[in-house]
């Protein structure tokens, strides 16, 4: 029986053998043309099931996948791959050819076209992985050398040792696993290096998609109030060959250390720009420690473009809001970067301002003392920099938020209250818009400290409380002097010095020396010298310290 137009699909769908033969002949150049075209052919059942019978006027429906180029086969199902599995295995595993060479040979000799991403996805399904370097005998790797891409060992993050890349461009990334007992190797020979695919664009796209799924699950758990990292995030692995972000960051750091800045910079661009926004919770804290070391190598070579990518990555790290997110550590590190490399200070401050000042709603939520502390440090850094300048609007928001937390705290002896009061005092001292409320707040903070320790000698105070007390006194003293209240400033300064133990006096003397120089430029020298010469600290300094201070015009 011959199936004519419209019935060939039914015959093919019910006969796997016919479908296989059909695809095989189509791959070798047989063309299935339209209705009535010369050279068209039909399919017969029964004894002729494996024959292709040419006819002239029978319409045949083309069910084999083809591209625009005649008989070229583009795989759509697993059956298409199974037809050419032996050829691919021979080229890729036994002859140890590169993937690009395998793709070219399959396209030219077998008319089998697929992208590198399709090949790698199929390799993962077949659980293929190989060594890029054959053994000394030249025999192809066999047995346990073909390890599964998604076995248990790939589902946990582990430290990796690095080996030099055999390729000149450094794009071939290879690691030596710490546990190589399962790998067959001859005594006295080096362990073979596990190969990892080069970071091609298709790979990065697939990694990005997988990471986004993990992040969405993590954020969903965060919104539901769950503090634990989801199970899928714990078991998540990157790529079919057990890539993980820590390994890539470690490799980039190694390239920068080895003065291969171009390779390291390219890796950083791939990591931070393409998948940096999609980190899962496990990689987050581990990779953060590695990233803290990178700016030194980046800035040493003046790669500010890479630094910008790095700062963007830190921004995304904070936006994920881990239970113990390192906000304060990041701010302090970036401030140190700005001080060490003045050319990068505007860049660092701009990034910090965007995260913790301009995008307040992103990280704010319920007011968090850690977030406010980080934004407070940003504000201080901007004020102290020549390019940043004072931002009164941001300071007003900070004072409002600190004040809200302060009103929620009822225990005057709570160290959080003292911390908040200290921040508010500093901000109010900086901006004239809040001067009227500054003196009462500062005196309340001092009163709370005295009430907390209840006439306990200053020498027995905790160091943190003593520093807060001294800062409150000094800021209040400077504020009173700026507003012309010299008598009150003298009383406040005397009390601050009385709260200073012997180990702190020289440090305070240096601070007072700077303060005296500042006062001498803005007031009558005789009046300043008379008032500040009465301070008990100046009478108790060592002789060399008094000689040094005697050179100050205000004391001469």
Automatic annotation (TrEMBL):
Residues 78-130 form the Clr5 domain. Pfam families: Clr5 (PF14420). Residues 157-197 are annotated as: Disordered. It comes from the Eukaryota. Transmembrane segments: none annotated. This is Clr5 domain-containing protein.
């Amino acid at each position: 029986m011959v199936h004519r137009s419209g019935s060939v699909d039914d015959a093919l769908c019910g006969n796997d053998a016919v479908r296989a033969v059909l695809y095989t002949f189509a791959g070798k150049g047989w063309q299935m043309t339209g209705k009535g075209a010369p050279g068209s052919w039909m399919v017969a059942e029964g004894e002729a099931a494996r024959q292709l019978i040419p006819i002239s006027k029978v319409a045949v429906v083309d069910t084999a996948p083809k591209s625009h180029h005649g008989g070229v086969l583009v795989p759509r199902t697993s059956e298409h791959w199974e037809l050419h599995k032996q050829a691919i295995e021979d080229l890729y595993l036994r002859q140890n050819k590169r993937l690009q060479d395998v793709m070219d040979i399959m396209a030219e000799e077998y008319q089998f076209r697929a992208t590198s991403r399709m090949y790698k996805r199929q390799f993962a399904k077949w659980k293929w992985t190989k060594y890029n370097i054959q053994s000394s005998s030249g025999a192809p790797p066999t047995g346990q050398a073909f390890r599964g891409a998604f076995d248990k060992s790939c589902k946990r993050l582990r430290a990796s040792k690095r080996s030099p890349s055999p390729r000149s461009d450094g794009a071939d990334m290879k690691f030596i696993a710490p546990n190589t007992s399962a790998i067959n190797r001859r005594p006295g020979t080096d362990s073979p290096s596990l190969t990892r695919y080069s970071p091609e664009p298709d790979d990065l796209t697939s990694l990005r998609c997988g990471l986004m799924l993990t992040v969405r699950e993590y954020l969903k758990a965060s919104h539901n109030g769950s503090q634990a990292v989801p199970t899928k995030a714990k078991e998540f692995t990157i790529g079919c060959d057990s890539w993980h972000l820590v390994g890539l960051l470690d490799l980039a750091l190694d390239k920068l250390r080895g003065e291969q800045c171009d390779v390291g910079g390219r890796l950083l661009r791939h990591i931070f720009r393409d998948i940096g926004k999609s980190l899962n919770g496990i990689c987050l804290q581990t990779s953060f420690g590695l990233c803290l070391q990178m700016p030194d190598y980046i800035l040493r070579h003046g790669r500010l473009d890479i630094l910008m990518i790095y700062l963007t990555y830190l921004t995304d790290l904070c936006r994920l809001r881990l239970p113990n997110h390192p906000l304060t550590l990041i701010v302090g590190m970036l401030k140190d970067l700005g001080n060490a490399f003045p050319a990068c200070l505007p860049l660092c401050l701009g990034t910090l301002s965007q995260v913790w000042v301009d995008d307040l709603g992103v990280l704010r939520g319920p007011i968090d003392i850690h977030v406010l502390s980080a934004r407070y440090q940003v504000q201080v850094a901007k004020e102290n920099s020549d390019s940043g300048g004072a931002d009164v609007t941001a300071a007003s928001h900070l004072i409002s938020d600190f004040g809200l937390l302060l009103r929620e705290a009822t225990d005057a002896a709570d160290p959080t209250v003292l911390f908040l009061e200290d921040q508010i005092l500093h901000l109010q001292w900086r901006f004239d818009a809040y001067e009227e409320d500054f003196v009462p707040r500062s005196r309340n903070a001092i009163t709370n400290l005295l009430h907390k320790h209840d006439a306990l000698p200053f020498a027995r105070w905790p160091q943190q409380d003593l520093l807060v007390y001294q800062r409150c006194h000094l800021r209040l003293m400077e504020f009173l002097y700026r507003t012309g209240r010299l008598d009150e400033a003298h009383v406040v300064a005397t009390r601050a010095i009385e709260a200073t133990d012997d180990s702190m006096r020289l440090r305070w003397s240096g601070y007072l020396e700077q303060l005296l120089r500042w006062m001498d430029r803005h007031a009558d020298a005789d009046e300043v010298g008379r008032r500040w010469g009465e301070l008990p600290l100046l009478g108790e300094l060592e002789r060399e310290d008094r000689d040094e201070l005697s050179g100050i015009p205000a004391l001469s």
